[in-house]
Amino acid sequence: MKILAILVGKIIILIGKIFHKGSSLPGKVALKIYPDLLKNFQYPSIRIVVTGSSGKGSTTKLIAETIKNTKTVCYNSSGANLSWGITTALLEHASLNGHIKTDALVLEVDERYTKTILPYIKPDYLVITNLTKDQPPRQHYIDLVYDDIVKSIPKNSLIITNMDDPYLRNFAKDLKNKIVYYSLAKNKYSYKKQIFENLNIYHCPYCNSKLKYSYYNIETLGNYKCPNCSFTYEEPQYIGKNLDLTKMTFTINNEIINIGGDMLYNAYNTLASYTCLAQLNLDFTSINNSLNNLNKLPSKDFINDNKTFRAISCKAENASTYNQAIFKVMHDQDKKDIIIGWLEISRRYNHYDISWLYDIEFELLNNSSLNKIYVCGIDALNIKQRLLLANIKNEKIVMGENIASIKEKVLHSKASKVYGILNFDYVKPFEEAFKKKEE
Question: What is the DSSP annotation of 153-205?
């Protein structure tokens, strides 16, 4: 049955390539034929899994593309990170007897699917980017996600994760696995008084006391200490220093490294990738050069009628990604318009939940640099109600059915900059509406 499942999967992949169609169907069909297929592949000697609430796709790409400079790699570059998507990626590189014919395996895995993937893959290295409130109807609560992951981690897997997040220190409390940490040092964007009130987890994992912070990088990420027990931030080996979001760089061991964007998550994703790659005993110069090349991206800004436009893609149902966008926008003191909206909340289920809107710190947008906020899409009214609760004046909020419907108002506004804080499905409509045709 194993050979039949692999053969059928490969045929479906070939048909898809002929018609230029990619999907998770080959893996889904193969698993229908032989449900134990993941258990019966012969995996490469280097096995890396990346999981977390956000950032796992970008981190996986940086790791995989760097390893590809010297080794062959199997990885789910399409971003399909559930069982059938992962199986499809494996089928592309498998012989008929199930041998994965590459030197390394690098997989992005959905955090709720770690329990069905990790026991079979048995990764040498497990990168956990973060665990935050995410997709409430599916994830329910962060502790449930944590439980799924912690129960599925093989005892020999090396865990790579973020020292700045106290919640992730639970893995050291609950497991005997070796853990390697990374951290983003205090920088010019750090702050001492918490500005994000709707936090994730900021209590001590040992005694549950509220943690004290000497500084925050964003939300619960920073330098912390428990006032009632010995739990505290510990400086790790891999630290990103001298963060400059304008230049889109930081330094590690005095070497300047491009982070691939001007958002804090770009810095953390690059740190996670660097730390993982360092465990493979790759030459540090090679790692630096690869990350610098991969992260050398053109500016995402564009100009139209003397206005600067920028789309920031956020993950719907994840307040932390929106908070990072707000953190970016609030540091820009130029007169600005902001567009917020999405075409749909989720493609995975029919539940309709907007509770996550109330974990986004829209209050930070309410300052003298704000000209107008345009809200559009299926939840325009709900977004407006949330903005009103943030004490943003009604006359500063403009509703529209979609981005096209607000185009002329935006182009003729007094603002010099326009930010789109958008779910991924509204990024393309934003660019189509405001980019000049010749661009």
Answer: --TTPEEEEETT-GGGGHHHHH--S-EEEEEE---TT-BSS----S-S--B-T
* pLDDT at 439 exceeding the cut of 50: no
Match 């500005």 to its residue by tokens.
195
Q: Are 77 and 86 in contact (CB under 8 A)?
A: no
- pLDDT tens sequence across 157-178: 999 999 999 999 999 999 999 9
Q: What is the pLDDT of residues 278-308, one digit of tens each?
A: 999 898 999 999 999 999 877 788 999 889 9
Q: Rounded to an integer, what distance in angstroms lies between the CA atom of residue 338 and that of residue 354? A: 20
Tell which residue, 144, 167, 147, 41, has the closest CA to residue 100.
Answer: 41
**In Å, what is the CA distance from 131 to each residue of 83, 104, 155, 322, 363?**
20, 26, 21, 15, 24
Q: How many CB atoms lie within 10 A of CB 61?
A: 20
Q: Would you say the C-alpha torsion 11, 13, 18, 24 has a positive or negative sign?
A: positive
- List all residues 6 or more positions away from 155 whose beta carbon is below 8 Å from its beta carbon: 175, 176, 177
Question: Are the beta carbons of 90 and 100 closer than 8 angstroms?
Answer: yes
Question: Is residue 168 exposed (0-12), middle (13-18) or buried (19+ Cβ within 10 Å)?
Answer: buried
**Percent of the chain at pLDDT exceeding 70:** 97
Give me the domains of the chain, ranges plus CATH numbers: 40-294 (3.40.1190.10), 302-434 (3.90.190.20)
pTM score: 0.93
| The pair of three-digit structure tokens given for residue 69, joined into one six-digit string | 């400079």
Gyration radius of the chain's alpha carbons: 22
